[in-house]
Amino acid sequence: MEKISVFLDDYRKAPDGYVLVETIDECLELLQNFDIEHLSLDHDLLNKTRNGFMLVQKMVKEKLFANRITIHSANSVGGKAMYNCLKQAQRNLTMPPAIIVSLRPLPLKFFPPRVLQHYKEIR
């Protein structure tokens, strides 16, 4: 199975080497059909009722995970809820404890060079 890195966001551009998806349905399709090395997730999407937290809940329910997961949302409440949901799944052993889960909010307008380094190292 082909290995890719995925960036879910409807506002920011994806870092080089990442597949950009703008909806949770697009992201779920990739999770079902590819081996995902790094999955970076936003909370707030254009469709207010189908956000990143809903995606994380579906991922846990269907046991669809990446090798590494970063929550990059600038929405502190939504991002923390996503992060906590994934960490709880690890504590419950629904999600493998070897998966690295990070909470690293990104600014909306640009990626500072040291933040981009996180994405370059993971690919």
TrEMBL record:
Q: Which species expresses this protein natively? A: Peribacillus simplex
**Record's superkingdom?**
Bacteria
Q: Name one Pfam family in it.
A: cREC_REC
- From the Swiss-Prot or TrEMBL record, give the protein name: Group-specific protein
Domain Cyclic-phosphate processing Receiver intervals: 4-88
